[in-house]
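Following up on my earlier thread - several people asked me to post the actual chain instead of describing it. Fair enough. Here it is, all 198 residues.
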Amino acid sequence: MTTLESYLTGNVLRDRADIAAIERALHETAETIIATFNGSHWPYEVTRDAPFKKGNLSQSTTAMMIRAIDLVLAAQEANATEPSYTLDFDKSTVDQLDRIRQSAVASLRADIGKSGSLETISRTYGRNDPLTLSFLAEIFPATHGTSEPTSTFLKTEALRLVNLDPGRELTKFFNFERKATDPDDLEFEISTPLSNAF
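Reply from S.P.:
Thanks for posting it. Predicted structure:
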């Protein structure tokens, strides 16, 4: 058993060093989020010391990056089940991350609704797949009684997925069918684990 005295004379220094290392990593993460944002979204892939790859908005990548901003800034509403640690960012970084988040959310909402009805499209996981929907649910939490279209869409899709039996209906979770309204450059690149399942 560690006594308070032994902790304060030894382990506390190691814990403080660990916290400092994590804080440095999170500050670098915030810098990367800011540096790689292109005005509406982030590249699908970023490689250190290489130019950013250009590409269309990836809904799942954009949703994950928005969630990363939320977590880095502890921007989510207080939740007893998710204790958060607030970092000390300068006002400029906080303002930049807030502006980037707002812009990315607007771009993501527009992209989800670009076909005239709400739909997610992942080149890897297909239409309205559970992975992309789960990323969206992290940033568009369902609020009881809300009629906001994105929340309504997510609730409808969640009910559809809950009623599927993954043991017998795995392929219904992932829809790769092309539509006449799809952009010409849309090509599904089914992930290896999914292609093995089919």
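The radius of gyration is 20 Å. That should answer part of your original question.
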